[in-house]
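Bench log. Compound arrived from synthesis this morning; before running ITC I wanted a structural hypothesis for how magnesium ion sits in the protein. Inputs:
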Amino acid sequence: MTIKQIIPYQILDSRGEPTLMVQMSSENGKTAKFAVPAGASLGKTEAVEKRDGEGPYGGLGVLHCIEAINTVITPKFIGYPLDQLEDFDELLIALDGSERKENLGANTLLALSGAYLKLSALEKNQPLWQYISEHNNTSPEFPQLFATIVGGGKHAPGLDIQEYMIVPQNTNPDIATQTIYDVYHTIRTVMENLYGPSATLVGDEGGLAPIGTSTEVILEALSQLNGKVQSKFDIALDAAANSFYKDGLYTIETQSLHASDLFKLYQGWDSKFNLYSIEDPFAEDDLEGTEIIKNMAGKPKPFLVVADDYTTTNKSRIEEMQKDTLFDGIVIKPNQVGTFTETFAAIAAARASKAKVIISHRSGETTDSLLADLAYGVGAMGLKLGAPIRGERVAKYNRLLEIAADLDSNQRQSPVGSRVISPSATAKTGSAPAGTSTPQLPPSTPPVAYKPPVSPIVQPQPVAPAAPTTAAQPTSSLVPPS
Ligand code: PEP
Ligand code: MG
């Protein structure tokens, strides 16, 4: 089967900025679409996203990308066979001809690569995750969800740390999603009680965006909920430290710190709140910070150190940095590199270095749910997917729930012992029973009492009439039906 038609067009992403969508059709009339996300906190070595630089949408348009597709790319690919992703991507990379895809744009290449990948799966009548898994020879497994509860940094005003995430230990999508829902809505009430109604506004990833708070307050609130929701969870941060680093100093919550003092701050948070991981704890070009990470390599660490801006989904960078096994986890974002073939190579390189693979959305997302298939199909340890609100974030949660439901229904239709697919919808470190097709959810949790913390950095400023000493009382709608 071959490609019959390629239609590129401009749509808006979740920040309301233009992005590129490609619709690709096969000879027999099947059609797939893929739309490209965009980051706000960028690694310096990310592949280049091409924008018009002038004209409509304040120059953020992608009309030049569309023109390049119509004039340079499409003529080469009409009649091109499907199910040849590596050759297809190689030809795209050659047409661009630059190291970081600055000629045609990484967004141009990724829109085509994604549409081609999806159309190839459709042609084989396979769910996308299965096609991805067979292509990469990987075992499908549900990832642990890294869910943004509170946002800051380049995604929201109010906090310097970019993402305060919870990571349910149970990988069953139903249980993980309910856990995230309960934590998110309880924290929303807590923030509203402490800082007033504006604290329920959200940042780019749907994380709450309270003003006048501090990391201690957020971590304290999150840690008080552990054990009171469906699944135990860990707490993870994405510091995205590039965004609060300047001239050798990190400016964070009114302090100006060298890398060594920032590390002490992290250690203090970890000793109180037991952090699971910190992503991009230092700026990528801060040698002092890199030295601290190097010195930790091979020794027991207080928390996992995760790379995003350091490695930018680039196989060579991952291999280079992992010679010294610098990172315990590596974030994978397809648009940092520009094609899915290179994304798969980065995943393989991360795995070969024994790092945990964490597939990630971008802060400027689309409603495409490919990432859920990717994370499940390659059996990634983690999937960063934002808060459980807003269409572009919820699309990824819902796709995982859909995959789980499909697997569950397939299993129910197959005689016992003849399962074709094992969903592995079980906890990696949690306590769900292995192979359970219909999760037995624990009974609903009572509203969670929250004790306001004493923060050494910023004291919460209560907003009248709510008193900070009063336990937060989530409404009964927060409690899922049992
Ligand atoms: C991140 O830094 O991990 C992230 C998702 O944000 P952005 O897309 O802005 O890089
Ligand atoms: Mg990051």
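What the model suggests: The pocket of phosphoenolpyruvate (ligand 1) is lined by residues 39-41, 154, 238, 240, 308, 331, 360-363 (CB under 6 Å). The first strand starts at residue 3 and ends at 12.
ITC booked for Thursday regardless.
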